[in-house]
Amino acid sequence: MARSSDTKAQAGFALALPDNPLNGLANEHMHLREVCGHLDALADSDKAQPVLALSARAYIRGVLPNHARDEEEDLFPLLRRRAPDDKDLHGTLDRLSQDHRDIAAARPRVITILERLITDNAAPDAPEAVRLKHFADLERRHLLVENAVILPLARAYLNGRDLKRLRKRMQARRGVDDI
Known about the structure:
single chain, mainly alpha, 7 helices
C-alpha cells in the first residue's frame, strides 16, 4: 500500500499534467533525473540523508510505476500504430520495454534499501550503494533514449486525438478527472 508521501507525489504529478501529455512525460523524466542524483548522493555519502531517501522512495514507489504503464500501455502502442513500418523505432521500443522490466525487477530492492536508510537514519553500506548507483545508471540510460528518440518521434507521429487519449489515460491511472 502506498504511503501518504507516495500518494502526494503521484497526485502532484497528476495535477501538474500539462495539456500535452508528452510535456508531462518530459517533466517527469526531468524529475526522475533529479531522483537519480539523489540516489547517487546517497550512495556516495557516509552520512545519513533521510530527506533524500524519502524523496527518492516517494517517487520510485509512487510515480515510477504509473509512468512505466503510461509508456508501455499507451505511448509505445500508439507509436507502433502510427509508424507500423519503422523497424528501428520498433526495435528501440522493444529495448525500452526490456528496460522497464529490468527497472521493475530492481525497484523492490531499491525501495527496501531506501526504507532502511530512512528507518535507521543511516548511510548505505557498500552493497546497497552499488545497487542504488546501478538503478540510477539504468534509469539515466533509459531516459537518454526516451528523451532523444522517443519523445521527438512521438511529437512527430501522434495526432491531437492520440494526445488527448494519452492524457486521459494518464489522468485515470492517477485517479484524477479531467482538470
